[in-house]
Amino acid sequence: MADIHRLESPTRNAGKATVYGAWERFVQGEDDIRGVRPEVALSWHRCRDQYRVDPYLTEAPEAATDVDHTLEHGVVFAELGFRAASVVDDVSKIGGVVTVADASGRVLAEWGDKATRSFAAKANLAPWFCWSEGATGTNGMGTALEAHTPVVIRGAEHWCQAFHDWTCAGVAVRDVVTKEPVAVLNISCWRSDLPAPVGAWLSNAASRTQFMLRRRARDAGAELVAAYNHARSRSSGGLAAVDPAGRVVIADDAASVLLGVPSSTPAPDPAMRWNPGLPGLTRATRYAAKQAACNPAWVGSTQIFTHLADEPTPITIRPVFLSGHLVGNLISFGVHEGEQLPRTEGGGGAHDQDQASRIVAMRENRMVLLRPPEVAFAESDGNDVWLSTDQGRLRANRPALDKLERELGGTGFLRVHRQFVVNLSRIREVERGFKGELALVMDNEASTMVPVSRRNAPAVRRALGI
């Protein structure tokens, strides 16, 4: 994980006056934010246009009281609390406070300099108040929960003017399977800068906590493999074990063909699991997780489109637990048992309800807000995702093609290859190879030819009616 202090220099170079001037213009509705770091600009955009946070808010609101935490989350809170408590003396010496908050932005505990804590109390930077971006705008804790990297928010980079005297550095700890945030660790100083070692310490604390989560995830994967082996002797059809994110831990011969993954190859380590690229399966497993949390004995069924099949395949989903913690599901193919899932959650080919109204791209330090029809396709290139748009080739603000694919669900985009998601309405021609392989000619200026992988070809044919 990158050290936070490496992210500080752009703001120093920009200058406080430049950032404050951009803030004044942006809160008045202008989009001229020259001199503002891209990650801060994106946060401001969310605060103004998505969350509609009052920039003149003077204190954080009370946090929701009905937030449930799993035992797994409790382990993370305890680990971060231990690490925060171990540096209280050092944090106090720099006049800082260190906080731990949950995934909703609710502050759980606070330590540090007594005088600074009194200033913090005036802004409700204290336990049981909410510092998510949606509640309190751009800040160390809330913005770290939104980002996948450590963040520093200094002075006028805060969305709310009342917090412009603060400098905050935060890093989120994420579930190693679902990638969803679990908690956030933050250090704040009032009217002073944070020393460079703060970044290294936060990164180290988060890394050690993530290491613990990876170890527990491997144990969970081993439990999934054991449950699969037990059920395999009684299964007559295809069988697979998938984690809560819908990634395959192990599949038999029949299921591996439908999922497009290796057969009978266990992958208890979350870093080695396979993403079958089937939105219906992902929706079904997410729905199953919600139901199993309320009823561990829950069993459900639905139909999903699989690879190399023109018709939807029935599946039955059975949750698997380890010490009361959901670790994944057993998927039985060709079987209908248990509660029928709602079509919008896991049904055959139904679109997501949350349609992306805007796609955010970056041109240097400016955000470019695109409507879905303006994007021909998205291409993964290393750690970046590039968009072919009517305004040229732009870098997406999302670093993962999988996440962009989920956000574009229901807007006419389809995954056609592990590196490409295309806008179906922007396909000009379809070329067939000698062995039946497909390639899509897009209607962008370069008439780019996008390959279609063998396992995605049936879905492309269905979508195009060919």
TrEMBL record:
SMART domains from the entry? LytTR
| Any matching Pfam family | LytTR
The molecular function terms of the Gene Ontology recorded here are: DNA binding
Instruction: Identify the keywords attached in UniProt to this record, alphabetized.
Output: DNA-binding
Q: Which InterPro entries match?
A: GAF-like_dom_sf, LytR-like, LytTR_DNA-bd_dom
Going by the entry's taxonomy, the superkingdom of the source organism is recorded as: Bacteria
Q: Where is the HTH LytTR-type domain?
A: 359-466
Q: PANTHER family, per this entry? A: STAGE 0 SPORULATION PROTEIN A HOMOLOG, TRANSCRIPTIONAL REGULATOR-RELATED
Q: What is this protein called?
A: LytTR family transcriptional regulator DNA-binding domain-containing protein
In which organism is this protein found? Answer: Saccharopolyspora mangrovi
